[in-house]
UniProtKB/TrEMBL annotation:
Broad enzyme group: ligase
Keywords for this protein: ATP-binding, Biotin, Ligase, Nucleotide-binding
Domain ATP-grasp: 120-318
EC number: 6.3.4.14
Species of the source: Winogradskya consettensis
SUPFAM superfamilies in the cross-refs: Glutathione synthetase ATP-binding domain-like (SSF56059), PreATP-grasp domain (SSF52440), Rudiment single hybrid motif (SSF51246)
InterPro entries in UniProt: ATP-grasp, BC-like_N, Biotin_carboxylase_complex, Biotin_carboxylation_dom, Biotin_COase_C, CPAse_ATP-bd, PreATP-grasp_dom_sf, Rudment_hybrid_motif
The protein's name: biotin carboxylase
Domain Biotin carboxylation: 1-444
Gene, per the UniProt record: accC
Lineage: Bacteria, Bacillati, Actinomycetota, Actinomycetes, Micromonosporales
Molecular function, one GO term: biotin carboxylase activity
Amino acid sequence: MIESLLIANRGEIARRIIRTAKRLGIRSIAVYSEADAGMPFVVEADESVCVGPANPAESYRNTEAILAAAKSTGAQAIHPGYGFLSENADFARTVEANGLVWIGPGAEAITAMGDKINARNLMAEAGVPVAPGTHDPAESVEAAIEAANAIGYPVMVKAAAGGGGMGMAVADDETALRKEYEKVTAFAARMFGDGSVLIERYFPRVRHVEVQILGLADGRVIALSERECSVQRRNQKLVEEAPSPAVSPELRARFLAAAVKAGEAVGYRNAGTVECLLDPATGEFFFLEMNTRLQVEHPISELIHGTDLVEQQLRIASGLEPNFDVERPTSGHAIEFRVNAEDPKRFFPGPGKITTWVEPAGDGVRVDSGYGPDTTVTQFYDSLMAKLIVFGVDRADAIAKARAAVAGFQVAGPKNNLPFFAELLENDEFLSGDYDTGIVARMR
């Protein structure tokens, strides 16, 4: 096992990784921006290094500063968390070229899955179901219209280099497609440095289901259970649960087999997630993308499998076998709520200084937080303040615990979306388990 670890991230995921490192006796090293000085993750690490100003480009995405911090502190490995540099293939290569251990998949896998067109073509070749769509970028709006006519409206215009729900738009007809094509290509060029787009069939009623995979040190790829991620606003996840209430044992077997094929197709190592769209009317599912990193929602998989996925990441990177029974059936039900500094009605960001912060506690309640009393949520970073995770013997038990935990989570200062979660937990559609990605829009 490695003995020292630099975490190239901030907030709750940095604290999460530090917690596992401490339990395993691994020296933890935090990097932080000037805006994050004094934040909990900075204080809790065994050592901390400032890597630049608040602007992420000058700090958390500053590869030279992060590598310098790793060298000056004697770090053996770098864990990128999620976001920032976690899916940057060039950074992964540079880390390894400098003799450090990269806690994540190889650069080749990151590159292969980073381009949505290349990824869907690779998956189709591997026998993983993909939605009807283009095999090459739509180089012009005329090409996009031709593809849409062949696929059938409505269609999704999707940035090839996008991710995290960004760079996507729906077009119901040719007029809308002309407009959205220009918008998405411009956005993609500005945000990702690549304006390429693909055209896929859009499913008006669909569920977002994903599978956690682990590429082991011996070359095997295993799939754990699925997660339901259909409670979303603007294609961004708000609530996840595991297992999915929509997935039968037969469908689960197909999901897991497809996820293993996806991982094997790119020689995957370490933790990753195969995301799919599920048509609840037919039971068909289609590959959406592969996230070549640890997911925000990984705790719910940890709870139903009884393992620590960060520990498994570190073991894999160290050349060790998993230390949990990968064949053990899942048990119980887990739900995660992303507690964001945002308006609970329109979900607009609402940063500010935290004047009250009281986390709920109790049997089956876990809080992975990045903040605390007297800390400040700034405009420089993602609005995620904490993840509230509940675990019960079944879905009804988990929901009952969630109601109490949401009611007991006290936050004042910045805006927060806890009132939305209280509303969701009384919503008949959510309670039935028969919901889709349109549930939030219908509630609003």
